Structures
1.
Amino acid sequence: MSRSVLLAEASIPDTAKSLLLYQHKDKFSIVIPGRGELMNSRVHGSEKALAELACARMGTPDRPRLLVGGLGMGFTQAAALAATNEKAEVVVAELVPEVVDWHREWIGEPAGHPLEDPRSKVFIGDVADLLRAEPDGFNAILLDVDNGPQAVIRRENDWLYSLEGLAVARAALRRGGVLAVWSAGPDVQFDRRLRRAGFKSEMVIVRPHRAGKGARHYIWLAH
């Protein structure tokens, strides 16, 4: 029986936690010790849906510019590239620099090597810093950071989903832009904060596996 092989380890900034990258045959998985598997290369339906739903709602700008918060296994980045035109720019912000290295060495293939697309740009650092730095910078902002609006991995991520963070995200959107937020579970308080921050939003339930299979994940689409 084949066993999982530990390929690499990386520290999560501002925490005492780490990410472990494993390979089992053709499957890659990223694990947080004590919390279990964070993501893997075989289950990615909701990550793709995050980009596809947002792109379908942002209209058809001539030169769309998108921001993806969290590289992960790269499926959101790949789906955003697939849903936009040849003039698009898709910026991905990744807090853990080693994850970008892992893509280039091991885990890029399942998602189709999205970082090799010339329309991809990589920002190493906190997506919150990029939001603050670029008002009116994006047609769509796609956030798959932590566990959703209730951060459990890195407490600093709570800011993104606070009233202040949502106001900054709103300012970073261009006219007609959309903020899309992935979550592992529902959150009534987050619905209310979106409205208080000036957004009109809808929540869509998606599945990580094939249609109708697997756990429920939640995506907010806020305009």
2.
Amino acid sequence: MNNSTIEKARKIKMLVFDVDGVMTNGDVTYDENGVEYKTFNVKDGHGLVRMAQSGFITAIITARNNGTVEHRAKNLNITELYQGQKYKLPALEELMKKYNLDYSQVSYMGDDLPDLCILEKVGLKCCPQDAVDEVKNVCNFISSKNGGKGAVRELTDFILDAQGIEKIQIVSENKE
């Protein structure tokens, strides 16, 4: 990673994530009753719990509404969850105001066109390896992993390393 990206990572206080295509591989599965299922990566979850335990603000901003995402956010001690956000920037601006942060202190990981409105503004612009080209073109951190396959963990480890924070053992009841 280049020095400019490491410098950006040193300023981060809040990590914000899209869900589909970032925390999951982007597949959506429905049963015969229309119930939606998502599959999450445990290593990604472990990284997110470590960030929370290290004092970072973690947030999800997603266009979809899904009980599975709410359950996952609670399991991982995600600080803030915004669902049903077709246009995501107002949610981010609300978070920044609430926590008195500027764009340089925010990392966002997205994978598709609806994420560009945030990616164009934040300090650490991140995406999984399988993000669309338009997103990759604006990002300064492109994971070597695909969405739902370790991209989130790679980012959390990178930020912890950049800030010289020891990768602590998780002390909790959840299995992450």
3.
Amino acid sequence: MSEQGRPPDAPDPGSEQGINLPGFRDVQLEFAAHIRNPSQNPKPADVDERRMRVYRELVYNNIEGFVAGAFPIAKKLLSPETGTPSEQETGNSPWHRLVREFVHQHASTSPYFLEVSQEFLEFLGQTERPDLPPFLLELCHYEWVELALRVDEQDIPSRVLREGVSIPIDAGGDLLDQVPIVSPLAKCLAYNFAVHQVRGDRPLASVEPAATFLVVYRDPEDAVRFLETNAMTALLLELLDGERTGRQALRELAGKISGPDLDAAASETRIAKVLEQGSQTLSRLRDRSIIVGALAAQA
């Protein structure tokens, strides 16, 4: 015996480690390719078809379930069936063809199932599909924002951090002369279609282009709601950056919408009108918890 306790002429066990690795890797690649798209990629020859079908349906139905849960209206528009489809049914509707294409082609950057919906949205944004409704990407984005707000672990804030100091937000503060604070659970969205009006039973041809501005938000009861608004309110919310007072934001808004040909008197008239209407808008936004209150203006 050698000093390692092995006969000197015995083969080294470590010398054969990995000898089957290339072949096993090939089988893995065949296996994964077949699961991603069984119509284009044959299954590994030595895998039983019955067992292979279990893997195919398990992987596809799990991914499709996560996507359908995030985009229920999109699914209903593109697929009339309900329930879990059989393997034969997954190629028979635009919805399942789209999900199959996602499974086959998209290289996900996240390994987490909970982020499948975000990956699907990214896939849609990279996909040119003239056979699908032109508003599909915007509809899916709108549905995804609703989902993201629903699962967001943040609460509507009652304080903000300024230079390391926690400052309370005054829920009844002066929205003109103090600094309005927009809820982090409010998202301002602009679309080319009125996607918030799309329903699963609505004819696709009836959805026509229309410039649409929405604020999607979560209220204090954790219900996700939307407010249909306009370009001016969307710009106002963008100007409310946590630094400007409401008055400063509205005066800047008035400057953006005033033409360069206005004289000083006309410009001041425009500013006064914007301040009057804007003050009412700020109050309505606070009533919906889109604005959560105000802070004293910094010197």
